[in-house]
């Protein structure tokens, strides 16, 4: 195909701020259709994209002949039906995380995509952070040695403001664990491998947000044991008062091994902290330029805010996988592995017990 037509289903901030700029960088790609359940949101997207084909019906949009791929950025409860409809129509799919409301639902999505032989990508955007890519390279090269410990801590100050559908369990499934910790669960899998068992707690400390009921978690912590024998500690919160939010707030991942330790903070996109066994402590380790952009990406890393623009490489990876008929670097199966951990964490919090991942 010469020009790839993209339909965006869910035209809110994520699509306009992350997906659309990434698509703009891709050669011979055109947004051919827009879909959103909110006519006002749809109109804003129409004006920003210049796309004349709009609809509130995703069923209509995914069946269009001028649509080869679909980007889904809707509330979590609608991811599966939209994705399955797109897959049935033979479309490639990039879907926001979490992919669905349960591992059973997400497995059905992954199986359907494989059977239809379409490209599928889970939007674990932070996989594209230069420092994260370099850290993965170093771990796989053996610089870490045998992994001993993985820990991540994501703290933000969202206060008690209304966060829309994200504070409704029937639409979101979960709160902080699916919204923010999902990325760090994926980091853990990417760096250390699958988890064997875990114990977790989730808390809802703000039953009212912006004057409206909130029944989703705004704090979560997981203590995990990996199949490799390594330990894991993961925490995430919306209620760390005074620490700011987004990339301006604390977001750290550290991994300790038999030979060395590495640490990275999302705010420091171009460096890691590194220490060798028996050494003086952690010191700065610059990320080589070859890791500043995704392989083949036309993005100029010197242009724009690097704490934002790395996200645009995700769209390039999706389009490049379509053109070269290869699997995406981050697939629905990665989304499934994350969802299995989420389901286990929710079960653990409910039962106050350790949960074996394979038992699910």
Word description of this protein:
The protein contains 11 helices and 17 strands. It starts with a strand and ends with a strand. The chain has 2 domains: 4-118, 3-Layer(aba) Sandwich (Rossmann fold); 127-302 and 338-351, Dihydrodipicolinate Reductase, domain 2 (2-Layer Sandwich). The protein is 33% helix and 24% strand. The strands form 3 sheets. Strands 16-15-14-13-7-12-11-8-17 form a 9-stranded mixed β-sheet. It has a 6-stranded parallel β-sheet with strand order 3-2-1-4-5-6, sandwiched between helices. Strand 4, helix 4 and strand 5 (92-95) form a beta-alpha-beta unit. The protein has helices at residues 13-25, 39-49, 58-62, 79-88, 103-116, 130-141, 169-172, 176-191, 306-309, 313-323, 332-351; strands at residues 4-9, 29-35, 54-55, 69-72, 92-95, 120-122, 147-155, 195-203, 208-209, 212-213, 219-226, 231-237, 251-257, 260-265, 271-276, 283-286, 355-356. The chain is an alpha/beta fold and 360 residues long.
Describe the structure in brief.
This protein has 360 residues and is an alpha/beta fold. The chain has helices at residues 13-25, 39-49, 58-62, 79-88, 103-116, 130-141, 169-172, 176-191, 306-309, 313-323, 332-351; strands spanning 4-9, 29-35, 54-55, 69-72, 92-95, 120-122, 147-155, 195-203, 208-209, 212-213, 219-226, 231-237, 251-257, 260-265, 271-276, 283-286, 355-356.
